[in-house]
Amino acid sequence: MVFILSILVSTIILFIPLIKVVGILWLLIVMGIFIFLAKQAWDGKYYQDVTKYSLGIFPSL
């Protein structure tokens, strides 16, 4: 039982950096999409879409 728990703990410790990397990548992707949409809105296009997306993105974070 203790052996199984130690294996679980070690695998979790190994996966923590991976989870952090994935989380950072996800944040970068979301921010990139948001910046892209904001730029489109700055050009006068898709303004309502940007507000809709921003309202959809931020609660999910």
Number of domains: 1
DSSP strand (E) fraction?
Answer: under 5%
- Tell me about the biggest sheet? none
Count every beta strand, where a strand is a DSSP E run of 2 or more residues.
Answer: 0
Give the oligomer, counting copies of the same chain as homo and different chains as hetero.
single chain
Give the CA-based shape: rod-shaped
Whole-number radius of gyration?
19 Å
Q: Uncertain segments of ≥5 residues (pLDDT<50)? A: none
Number of helices: 2
Q: Name the average pLDDT.
A: 74
Q: What's the order of the H and E elements? A: HH
Distance between the termini: 37 Å
Q: What structural class is derived from the secondary structure elements?
A: mainly alpha
Percent helix: over 70%
Task: Walk me through what this model shows.
This protein is an all-alpha fold. It has one domain. It is 90% helix and 0% strand. The protein is built from two helices and no strands. It has helices spanning 2-42, 47-60. Helix 1 runs antiparallel to helix 2 (47-60). It is rod-shaped and about 60 Å long. The model has no long low-confidence stretch (mean pLDDT 74).
